[in-house]
Amino acid sequence: MKFAGIDLSEPKIMGVINVSPESFYKGSVRNDEDKLIETAVKMVKHGASFIDIGAKSTAPYLETQIPLEEEVRRAVWAIKTIREHVEVPISIDTTSARVAEEVLNAGANIINDVTGLKGDPEMAQIASEYNAPVIVCAHGEVKNLSDPIHTVMDFLQESLVIAEKHGIEEVAVDPAIGFLRPEWPPWYEWDSKVIANLNMLKIFGKPILVGVSRKSFIGAITGRKDPNERLPGSLSATAIAGFNGANIIRTHDVKETLDAVRMAEFIRRFAP
Ligand SMILES: Nc1nc2c(c(=O)[nH]1)N=C(COP(=O)(O)OP(=O)(O)O)CN2
Ligand SMILES: Nc1ccc(C(=O)O)cc1
C-alpha cells in the first residue's frame, strides 16, 4: 500500500508542526522562519516521511476561533517557508477548502481534514480538482453509550462515500483520537477502546493514520496535566496503535515515535 507516493509496507511517521500559537502543545509551535525550517529539516533527518502543517488549532476543549484570512496567511507562509527545504510530502491540517486550495498552490501535497470532508462543502471538490490525497478523520455527532469503534467506522464510511462521489482516489482513514467526546463513556475510555480495536479499520483497505501525540486522554489516564510531560504515555499508545495496524503515526516527536513504532511492528510479526 502507498499514500502520496510513500510506501507503507512498514509504518511511517508524520511530523507535526503548528504555526498556530493557540495549539494545545506549545512545544509544537513555530512562528519564526529559521526555527520552522530547522524543525522541518530535523524531522525529516529523524525519519519523518510526511510533514503536517497546522495553522489553526482544532482542540475541542480550547477557544480556537481565528479569522479565515489569518489561517490562510499562516498556512501559506509556512508551506512557502519549508517547501524548498524538505522533499517529503507536506499535508495541511485544515477544515477550510479556501486554505486547502491556497496551500496546494503554494506546494502542499495532501489535505488533512479533521471533519472528514463533511465540514466545508467545497472541500471534496478542491481535493478532486487538485488530485490531492486526503486524510479523513471520523467526524459526526456522537450519541451517548454508542460503541466507539463502530461509530468511528460509520463516520469514516460516510467520508469514503463523499470521496468516492467526487472521484478522490487516495484516502487515508483516521479514527480522530481526542475529537469524539460523548458524555458517556468518558473520552479517555472512548479513545482507549478505539485504539484497542484499531485493527477493525483494516476492513476499508485504506492506509490507517493515527494521532495520539501528547493528547488529553493520555493526560487523563496518567495524571499528567502538562502536555510537556506526556511523551512516555504517547509512546506507549503509539506502540499499541502500531501493533494494531496503524500505517502512519502523526506525532510531535519524530525520533522517539519512530523507535516505538518500529518495535511494535517488529514484535507484531511474531504475534499469533
Ligand atoms: N488527521 C489528524 N489530524 C489531526 C489530529 C489527528 O489525530 N489526526 N490531531 C490533531 C491535534 O494535534 P495538534 O498538535 O495539531 O493540536 P492543535 O489542534 O491544538 O493544533 C490535529 N490534527
Ligand atoms: N485538535 C486536538 C487537539 C488536542 C486533542 C486532545 O488533547 O485530546 C484533541 C484534538
Automatic annotation (TrEMBL):
Q: Which residues form the Pterin-binding domain?
A: 11-262
Q: Which GO terms describe its molecular function?
A: dihydropteroate synthase activity; metal ion binding
Is-annotated flag, keyword Glycoprotein? Answer: no
User: Which pathway, metabolic or otherwise, does it act in?
Assistant: Cofactor biosynthesis; tetrahydrofolate biosynthesis; 7,8-dihydrofolate from 2-amino-4-hydroxy-6-hydroxymethyl-7,8-dihydropteridine diphosphate and 4-aminobenzoate: step 1/2
Q: Where would one find coiled-coil regions in this protein?
A: none
Q: Which reaction does it catalyse?
A: (7,8-dihydropterin-6-yl)methyl diphosphate + 4-aminobenzoate = 7,8-dihydropteroate + diphosphate
- Provide the GO biological process annotations: folic acid biosynthetic process; tetrahydrofolate biosynthetic process
Q: Which domain of life is it from?
A: Archaea
The enzyme's first-digit EC class, named in words, is transferase
Q: Which EC number(s) does UniProt give?
A: 2.5.1.15
What InterPro entries does the entry give?
A: DHP_synth-like, DHP_synth_dom, Dihydropteroate_synth-like_sf, Pterin-binding_dom
Q: Does the keyword Metal-binding apply?
A: yes
Keywords attached to this Swiss-Prot or TrEMBL record, sorted alphabetically, are:
Folate biosynthesis, Magnesium, Metal-binding, Transferase
Q: What are its cofactors?
A: Mg(2+)
Pfam families, A to Z:
Pterin_bind (PF00809)
PANTHER family for the chain: FOLATE SYNTHESIS PROTEINS (PTHR20941), FOLIC ACID SYNTHESIS PROTEIN FOL1 (PTHR20941:SF1)
Q: What is this protein called?
A: dihydropteroate synthase
Q: Which organism is it from?
A: Thermococcus piezophilus
Lineage of producing organism: Archaea, Methanobacteriati, Methanobacteriota, Thermococci, Thermococcales
